[in-house]
Design a protein that fits this description.
The complex is a heterotrimer.
Chain A lengths: L7 H14 L21 E4 L9 H5 L5 E10 L9 E12 L8 H5 L5 E4 L13 E2 L1 H6 L20
Antiparallel strand pairs in A: 1-4, 2-3, 3-5
Chain B lengths: L22 H9 L5 E5 L11 E7 L2 E8 L7 H4 L5 H8 L7 H16 L5 H30 L3 H21 L8 E2 L2 E2 L7 H24 L2 H7 L7 H7 L4 H4 L7 H4 L21 H24 L19 E9 L2 E9 L7 E5 L1 H7 L1 H4 L5 H11 L3 H5 L1
Antiparallel strand pairs in B: 1-2, 2-3, 4-5, 6-7, 7-8
Helix pairs in contact in B: 3-4, 4-5, 5-6, 5-7, 5-12, 5-15, 6-7, 7-12, 12-15
Chain C lengths: L1 H8 L8 H14 L3 E7 L2 E6 L4 H10 L5 E9 L34 E8 L6 E8 L5 E3 L8 H12 L2 E3 L25 H5 L22
Parallel strand pairs in C: 2-5, 6-7
Antiparallel strand pairs in C: 1-2, 3-4, 4-5
The chains are: A alpha+beta, B alpha+beta, C alpha/beta.
């Protein structure tokens, strides 16, 4: 490769000078930001109208950080003359982000698509008790949820 | 803090014939009563890569005996796995070796799939292999940088973190998490790759290769680096194997053993063409050199995988509630830090009965009491860096 | 003799692994009656030996079978976990294991077993060696003279299960602090985190989807 035997220190200094000429890669947060990819697991958002209080997410959570309370109500039947149907409504749906380990099991097991991932990550608090997000706050995170993105070539096209 | 003890309690300080340069030295050595010092390289120490405590007994600056005290990060994984289901355990075991977290999930999921008798579709295997090699690159590239830090070169450590970000962005783009992907499922992987990922991956691999060349120019040829690492911490091959040292540490001692090629076939490694790098010296420099070549080899493997990525589904047909049939299986893989294995005992429930987690760093660090005898204190730091362990891997 | 036994034992693989059969026959030759059972478990040989042959089996593997690499040594407690069923606050999401004591491949004589895995870096085969340990006085020989790396594995097994390894230079705690009482991985040692916190999945339970009546849900 090289005819001359250049001492290692000199070669290293050559790398140093080359690197000095290149711009720095530092992103000056908070003035500049890098956006995480759409799939990034930032925060969990709740779509309350889809939730039927089936408790699957609270059961499957490895950390036991989802607290759910609900009650049943009677609704008028869908067609005339039938019995009134009972629906379950949420009283309380809290996720404790101090315990949550962002695994996504709750989002995956929800059979009614009530939980979604959003890449929002700037919600740190001064007080650790404020990390318990109630269902109003979880509903607000829905605005950051991305549509499912297109997949790479070769992926199986799922039939709707 | 040298302890001075009365002469009657100390062994005689033998002066070897011809060992001292001048008469003045001889007089000084005989007149002083010196004792051994116990130095605590405590759990908080920049060189111990986490909460490792090394209690060393020193004679001056030479180590006589070393006793690693571990367990500051013990989270009780094996007890936890007895109370959790398979998807929950997959989430947890990401955190054993947190730098190469995808590689921790692979043997466990493979064990569960073997017990169930199902196989993931080819595209899922390719994606798993891709992500495993990417996490190998991310882990070992950081080592290439921070090994310089152990011997006093500050800049390569920053390069290690900087170029690793590109690989972490790739992993995040595919799985949603930079450090803890939680992407493997029994039967395949959770999602397919997003659009544009392959192009980004090729660009990131080019950066990694350029970074490896930079490391070679800056560190490998550098006289200071060579003086600090050559001949330091030599692990003889047979002794290393008897201690359970694995991975690049053992390959640097000349043992040609890589579970991707030599163990039971897993993932897509039998479709790939790759070389296993060894070095004969067994010292810290050899370990660095082997890992540098392994990073380049991993990049070549990633490019091969991208060229030959299969199409199709990413998940096999599995029942909704997964009950793994009763049985026992031992699965081992070549993780970035060494040999990692899971011995899964199942009794037919939705979670295992017992999981024995064999982690690489546990055995790599168990050789320290033997390895550190006779070294100087700065060389202790070099050896710790070159063995490359992660505390979560030791302590589980 | 070994051919027909191999065909019975391998459930998953269609073709029995010839290497496993060869290794098994070498062990049978060397240990004779001390080898209680052996099985081909997914392509890896698993043998169960009498407690007195725990160290000789390892020595044989190291000297005659070129198994120079120690993978791990650990223990297992076969006793089933007793959990209160249907209690308020009990964790219904944790896996329910069988309540009767069953043993894995190669069986067991009682509650405790030690098992270790050794491999050959040159011949690329490995063997899992198991042995029973008496419940009232758990002692077994140490492998430290054969594989120096057994030092830390046996210390971990001691603190997690209480199994004493005769011949170990200094059997003391590895992970846990010095004054720790009890042996955590035993099945009668509870997982305190799950005992202390009430399970949040019990309040106002809705029947699972699929089990609910036709009008319920969205």
């Amino acid at each position: 490769m090289k005819k001359l035997k250049i001492p290692g220190v000199i070669r290293g200094l050559g790398v140093t000078f080359r690197t000095m000429m290149k711009p720095a890669v530092t992103v000056q947060y908070p003035h500049e930001r890098e956006d995480p990819p759409p799939r990034a697991r930032g925060v969990i958002a709740l779509k309350e109208e889809n939730c039927t209080v089936c408790m699957l997410c609270a059961r499957q959570c490895p950390d036991w950080c989802i607290y759910i309370e609900g009650h049943k109500e009677q609704r008028p039947p869908r067609r005339e003359g039938a019995a009134p149907r009972s629906v379950s409504l949420l009283d309380r749906f809290d996720i404790d982000y101090g315990l949550c380990m962002y695994c996504g099991i709750c989002v995956e097991v929800c059979p009614f698509d009530a939980l979604f991932w959003s890449p929002e990550y700037e919600y740190s608090e001064q007080n650790i008790a404020d990390l318990l997000h109630d269902k109003t706050k979880l509903g607000e995170w829905m605005s950051g949820v991305h549509e499912p993105e297109p997949l790479e070539i070769g992926a199986e096209v799922k039939k709707k | 803090m040298t302890t001075t003890q009365p002469p009657s309690q100390l062994p005689g300080f033998e002066v070897e014939a011809g060992s001292l340069g001048s008469l003045a030295d001889a007089r000084l050595a005989v007149e002083l009563d010196t004792g051994d010092m116990i130095l605590n390289m405590g759990p908080q120490h920049p060189a111990t890569h986490g909460t490792l405590r090394l209690v060393v007994r020193l004679d001056g600056e030479r180590v006589i005996a070393a006793d690693p005290v571990i367990g500051y990060m013990h989270r009780g994984y094996e007890k936890l796995t007895e109370f959790r289901t398979y998807p929950q355990i997959t989430t947890l075991i990401n955190r054993i070796d947190w730098l190469s977290s995808f590689a921790n999930e692979v043997p466990f999921i493979h064990a569960a799939e073997q017990l169930m008798g199902i196989e993931a579709p080819p595209r899922a295997q390719h994606i798993r292999t891709l992500l495993t090699e990417l996490s190998r690159i991310a882990t070992i590239y950081l080592f290439l940088g921070e090994m310089g830090l152990q011997v006093g070169a500050l800049t390569p450590a920053f390069w290690g973190f900087r170029d690793r970000e590109h690989v972490l962005n790739l992993i995040e783009g595919a799985t949603g998490g930079r450090f803890h992907p939680n992407f493997n499922r029994i039967g395949g992987v959770k999602d397919d790759l997003p659009w544009g990922w392959i192009v980004e991956c090729r660009a990131a691999m080019k950066r990694i290769l350029d970074g490896c060349d930079d490391f070679e120019d800056v560190l490998v040829g550098n006289e200071i680096f060579q003086a600090r690492t050559r001949g330091v911490g030599i692990i003889p091959a047979e002794l290393g194997a008897a201690y359970g040292v694995s991975g690049a540490n053992l390959r640097a001692s000349g043992v040609d053993w890589d579970l991707r090629r030599d163990g039971k076939p897993y993932l897509s490694y039998n479709e790939l063409d790759f070389k296993v790098w060894t070095h004969q010296d067994g010292d810290s420099f050899a370990r660095y050199w082997v890992r540098l070549q392994e990073t380049r080899e991993s990049v070549r493997m990633v490019l091969q995988l991208l060229d030959g990525l299969a199409s199709g589904p990413v998940m096999a047909k599995v029942p909704r509630i997964i009950k793994v049939p009763a049985g026992e299986v031992w699965v081992e893989t070549e993780n970035p830090l060494g040999q990692m294995g899971y011995y899964v005992v199942s009794k037919g429930a939705i979670g295992p009965f017992r999981v024995k987690i064999r982690s690489a760093s546990f055995s790599n660090v168990s050789i320290l009491p033997w390895l550190l005898r006779g070294l100087y204190v700065p060389d202790v730091v070099t050896v710790l860096g070159s063995l490359y362990f992660i505390l979560g891997d030791i302590d589980r | 003799m070994s051919d027909e036994v191999v065909a019975v034992e391998t459930a998953e693989a269609d073709i029995p692994d010839p290497v496993v059969g060869v290794l098994a026959s070498r062990f049978v030759e060397a240990l004779g009656d001390d080898l209680l059972e052996w099985e081909d478990s997914f392509g890896t040989l698993a043998i169960r030996v009498k407690p007195d042959s725990w160290a000789p089996a390892a020595a044989f593997a190291k000297s005659e079978l070129e198994c120079n690499y120690l993978s791990f040594i650990s223990g297992i407690d076969w006793q089933p976990v007793t959990r209160p069923d249907g209690d308020e606050g009990s964790d219904l999401s944790a896996p329910v294991q069988p309540t009767e004591m069953t043993f894995g491949v190669t069986g067991s004589a009682g509650r405790f077993q030690v098992f270790g895995h050794v491999q050959s870096t040159s011949r690329h085969w490995g063997v899992t060696i198991k042995s029973d340990v008496d419940e009232t006085d758990p002692r077994i020989a140490s492998w430290v003279a054969i594989y120096p790396g057994a030092d830390w594995h046996e210390r971990e097994c001691w603190e997690m299960y209480g199994i004493v390894f005769d011949g170990h230079p200094s059997l003391r705690n590895l992970y846990l602090p010095g004054g720790f009482e009890g042996h955590p991985l035993r099945k009668d040692f509870p997982l305190l985190a799950r005992e202390v916190k009430p399970w949040p999945g019990l309040v106002d339970v809705e029947p699972m989807p699929g089990v609910a009546d036709a009008d319920g849900g969205e």
